[in-house]
Amino acid sequence: MTPADLSLTVLRAVRRAVDDGALRVDVPSRVKVERARPGGVGEYASSIALSLARPAGRSALDVAGILEERLRGVPGLRAVEITGPGFLNFTLLRDVDADLVRGILAAGTSYGHGAALAGTVVRFAPVAESRAVLVVEALVRLLRSQGADAEVGADGGERPHVYPGASGGHGTDAVRWAFLRAAPHDRPLDPGSLLVPHERNPLFRVQYAYSRTRRLLVNARQLGFTPEPGRLGEPGRPGQYVEPGHPGHPGPPEHPDHASPLLRLLRDHPLALLSAARHRAPDRVARQLEAVADALLAFQHTVLPLGDEKPSAAHRSRLALAEAAGTVLAGGLSVLGISAPDRI
User: Fold this and answer.
1) pTM of the model
2) CA separation, residue 2 to residues 100, 103, 233 (Å)
3) Are 104 and 268 in contact (CB under 8 A)?
4) Residues 11-52 pLDDT 10s
5) Quick one: which of 116, 167, 204, 272 has the fewest CB in 10 Å?
6) How far apart, in Å, do the first and last CA atoms of the chain sit?
7) DSSP 234
């Protein structure tokens, strides 16, 4: 269940409450769901009950209780809790992680593409300045990925907001990243620094992270196993997954769960692409890819068996997650017109 799915799920609960007479309000067009703040409960939260309380003529806690009843047992939700004056807090079932990975692998590099901007027509004015050319090319690909009809028009149109001091470049990966990673009114990065294979080089980290996923797949085949979405288990505790709270759960993991940040970023990737398209901001795609790459590089060490450890279902699941992350990196790089090398 993605944040967009969760938003629709809560909206359906409101509609059911209105249909059966428990609430007398106009059903909103959308329900805002946000990631829970540090120290909060669950993974996501919504203030919809507070918004509906006054028009419903009831307290926010009453409205939250009505909605919580209609959200019990919804597939993909492990828990719905009410906190404070009436906030709804949601914890997703871990099974949805496997569904996320399956969805990414099925979509391939088109994961995150959609039809949210279908019917939108965007025509860019022809440009000659080197950075503007690359920005327009990226924006056309980005807008089309969200269903918009976008192209460079012959007789005017939108002009990209780019820093006028950029010049030179032949469309290499380093030049593209230098021009596209900077926000519209910022100076472009130094392409020369992006040619150095170093961890401080963001382009290198992104391309290297993708190449690591390809190498992990090769190494896994040599060890006799292939990716298969499923329970990730816990780093440092390979083997069968046991849900927290179950009598057989061993307690806190010995090592941090490096999968959680990566899963969150992959789940939010479609929203990042849509936001970048709406705001004409390819730099948002570049920042998203950097975050995915960093999370993947932190997670990669848990993928393959260590020492005499035998490959388990958890290893196959982690390998599938790594492959999905590589797929997202390759797709994002292609939107920017940058290569995803298997070896680096």
Assistant:
1) 0.69
2) 8, 11, 21
3) no
4) 999 999 999 999 999 999 989 999 887 767 888 999 999 999
5) 167
6) 34
7) B
